[in-house]
């Protein structure tokens, strides 16, 4: 069967990868990525075909919906005519890029799976709330999310399969997602740590390289899992990386809260997810508190949960047979 997965960047692309890992050999896969999103393209293209659609809004620049209508109509038309004709199901992994192809799939008689984000426990995402109204099924990671989607199905947390053997490489891994977190990086480099690996995203890494030549800085790496595998501690903003690190690789995690991400999850979402992963929540961006959090979380073991991605694939097979 032909399954289409949306991969709208960041953690949304991570969900698509996690599901593709379990669907490979069971279905023919096509992915939808945002136009110009080379990072997502590189991550999913090894699993199947890729098509591009315009992204309506981004977390660092959330335009009013009225200003994105022309993009939505363009995306809807492209979706209706360019999605593979043999599409049986479309899985939305979130992000507004998923709305138009999900609607087009329903109009064409296909099956739509609406996946909420693993980190949106208190505040639901707008995309998932919209798709809940017309999807065939909505899938959740946690029981608490049922308050927003009472007719949904809980499968457990979805995360990527480990592709490397975990080991202790003697470094702290820091990532703040696609858009980065300059204020946090500025405090981080004040720490007297011998080995740190930092993914800066859209923040220029060059000034930090000059200040800390013994650390590793880079914007993006489609093979980011290799860095998670060797980290002693993983520090990340609210998102799928935390779950991948804790549940996929068994790493102790620290959540950093970035208030500038207006379309991202809330402070309460971050706190609850961190508790579920047995991590440390870090709200204030100060060097001394960053160091204290690293010391506090070292050696912690995350809990065990059911493999939500595998459960979703089983559920999909039941519904489509």
The helix count comes to 12
Give helix % range.
25-40%
| Radius of gyration, whole Å | 19 Å
Determine and state the CATH class of the largest domain. Answer: Alpha Beta
Global outline: globular
User: What is the CATH T-level topology of the largest domain?
Assistant: Rossmann fold
Tell me what the CATH architecture of the largest domain is: 3-Layer(aba) Sandwich
| Whole-number total of structural domains | 2
First-to-last CA distance: 10 Å
Sheet/helix structural class: alpha/beta
Largest sheet: 7 strands, parallel
Rounded mean pLDDT is 92
Number of strands: 13
Along the chain, the helix and strand elements come as EHEHEHEHEHEEEHEHEHEHEHEHH
- The H-level CATH homologous superfamily of the largest domain, spelled out, is Glycogen Phosphorylase B
Spans of at least 5 consecutive residues whose pLDDT stays below 50 are: none
Strand content bin: 15-25%
**Largest sheet, spatial ordering of strands:** 3-2-1-4-5-6-7
Explain what the structure shows.
It is a single chain. This protein is α/β, with parallel strands linked by helices and 321 residues long. 36% of the residues lie in helices and 19% in strands. The protein has helices at residues 10-23, 38-44, 69-82, 99-107, 126-132, 182-188, 206-211, 225-230, 240-249, 267-276, 287-297, 308-320, and strands at 2-7, 28-34, 49-53, 87-92, 111-115, 137-140, 153-154, 171-175, 196-199, 216-218, 231-237, 253-256, 280-282. A 7-stranded parallel β-sheet has the order 3-2-1-4-5-6-7, with helices on both faces. A 6-stranded parallel β-sheet has the order 10-9-8-11-12-13, sandwiched between helices. Helix 1 packs across helix 12 and helix 3 (69-82) crosses helix 4 (99-107). The relative contact order is 0.13.
């Amino acid at each position: 069967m032909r399954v289409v997965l949306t991969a709208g960047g960041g953690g949304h692309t991570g969900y698509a990868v996690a599901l593709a890992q379990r669907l490979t050999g069971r279905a023919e896969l096509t992915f939808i990525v945002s136009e110009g999103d080379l990072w997502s393209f590189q991550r999913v293209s090894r699993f199947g075909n890729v098509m591009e659609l315009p992204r309506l809004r981004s977390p660092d620049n959330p335009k009013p919906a009225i200003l994105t209508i022309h993009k939505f109509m363009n995306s809807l038309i492209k979706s209706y005519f360019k999605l593979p004709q043999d599409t049986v199901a479309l899985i939305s992994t979130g992000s507004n890029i998923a709305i138009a192809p999900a609607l087009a799939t329903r109009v064409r008689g296909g099956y739509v799976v609406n996946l909420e984000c693993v980190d949106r426990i208190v505040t639901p995402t707008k995309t998932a709330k919209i798709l809940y109204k017309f999807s065939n099924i909505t899938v959740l990671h946690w029981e608490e999310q049922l308050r927003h989607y009472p007719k949904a199905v809980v499968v457990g947390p979805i995360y990527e399969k480990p592709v490397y053997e975990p080991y202790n490489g003697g470094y702290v891994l820091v990532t703040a997602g696609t858009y980065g977190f300059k204020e946090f990086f500025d405090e981080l480099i004040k720490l007297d740590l011998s080995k740190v690996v930092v993914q800066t995203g859209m923040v220029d890494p060059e000034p930090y390289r000059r200040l800390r030549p013994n650390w590793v800085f880079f914007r993006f790496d489609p093979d980011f899992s290799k860095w998670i595998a060797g980290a002693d501690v993983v520090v990340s903003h609210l998102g799928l990386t935390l779950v991948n690190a804790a549940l996929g690789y068994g790493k102790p995690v620290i959540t950093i809260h970035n208030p500038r991400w207006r379309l991202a999850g809330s402070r309460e979402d971050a706190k609850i997810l961190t508790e579920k992963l047995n991590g440390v929540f870090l709200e204030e961006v100060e060097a001394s508190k960053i160091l204290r959090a690293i010391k506090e979380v070292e050696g912690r073991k995350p809990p065990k949960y059911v493999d939500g991605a595998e459960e979703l694939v089983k559920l999909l097979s039941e519904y489509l047979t």
